[in-house]
Design goal:
Elements lengths: L2 E8 L4 H9 L7 E7 L3 H10 L4 E5 L5 H11 L4 E4 L4 E2 L4 H11 L4 E5 L2 E5 L4 E3 L6 H14 L13 E3 L5 E3 L8 E2 L8 E4 L20 H11 L3 E4 L5 E4 L6 H4 L5 H16 L4
Parallel strand pairs: 1-2, 1-4, 2-3, 6-13, 7-14
Antiparallel strand pairs: 4-12, 5-14, 6-12, 7-8, 9-10, 11-13
Helix pairs in contact: 6-8
Length: 275
């Protein structure tokens, strides 16, 4: 099974950590597609050569984050396409576990995702997020299951990530500890079969920089087209802690406009299908 890895990178500040971790994988990637913006292509070429990785470097000259994802998606030619961030560090068995998961999953499973674990690089310390807190888990079991019912096509996804009837992205009670049907959990750690590559066009819109919920958009599109998306907690990546890394939870007010726009895109996607 050939595995393509798509990595958008703006500035490339932490890219060397990811590339080193990909060099150390027990299963070698078929190709690493780096979509770079605001950094030296020659420097990236040097890193790929240093770590003996089969890199394809695409220089991004237009658009924002989801445009980079789409550029990488179109170039990818593997049987499985994995997406991660340039500030992630992949454990040595990351690719191997994805290969195994897709090999044994039913063919209608178009997407498999796993979690990220934030670390403070200088301290080598794990940083707990809201998902890990016991009060969060209790709330999801006792309140969320009835307060935020999922959209009708996502009834089976209520224990994982789903979109509720108000078009909010919701995390169910199995996350992040138990496997379940789930829309993609984090964009930093998700994979797709090549058969669905044309269905996972990420949403682009003028001035939409981060497109929060873009992972769930493509997951919803897969479900509406008859595929399944699953979550497993057993294949995490490490994610270098930065202030901007937690913008969706700690800076939600700053991205309110983009969240509202994403809701309109969910609604448009739903209206294109007969429910």
């Amino acid at each position: 099974m050939k595995v393509s890895i798509v990595v958008p990178s703006r500035g490339c500040e932490y890219l060397r950590y990811l590339l080193f971790s990909l060099k150390e994988q027990t299963v070698r990637p078929y190709e690493v597609i780096l979509v770079v913006k605001g950094c030296s292509v020659k420097l990236v070429e040097m890193l790929c050569s240093l770590y003996s990785l089969p890199c394809t470097i695409v220089e991004q000259r237009r658009g924002f984050f989801t445009a980079a994802l789409n550029m990488g998606r179109k170039v990818a030619s593997g049987d499985v396409i994995l997406f991660t961030d340039d500030d992630a560090i992949a454990p040595r068995v990351w690719i191997r576990r994805y290969v195994r998961a897709f090999t044994y999953a039913p063919r209608d499973v178009g997407c498999i995702s796993s979690r990220d674990i934030y670390i403070k690089l200088n301290e080598l310390k794990v940083f707990l997020t809201a998902d890990d807190l016991p009060q969060t888990k209790l709330y999801r079991w006792l309140v969320r299951t009835w307060l935020n019912p999922p959209l009708e096509p996502l009834e089976e996804y209520r224990f994982g990530v789903y979109i509720d009837r108000k078009l909010d992205v919701v995390h169910g009670p199995y996350l992040p500890d138990r496997a379940c049907l789930s829309l993609p959990y984090r964009g930093v750690n998700m994979g797709f079969r090549s058969e669905v590559i044309d269905l996972i066009e990420f949403p682009e819109y003028p001035n939409m920089k981060r497109a929060p919920g873009n992972e769930q958009y493509v997951g919803l599109k897969l479900v509406l087209n008859g595929f399944k998306s699953i979550y497993t907690p057993s294949n995490p990546v490490l994610h270098i802690y930065r202030e901007e890394s937690l913008s969706r939870t700690e800076r939600r007010g700053e991205v309110a406009t983009e969240i509202a726009l994403m809701k309109s895109l969910y609604a448009k996607l739903l209206s294109s299908k007969t429910l």
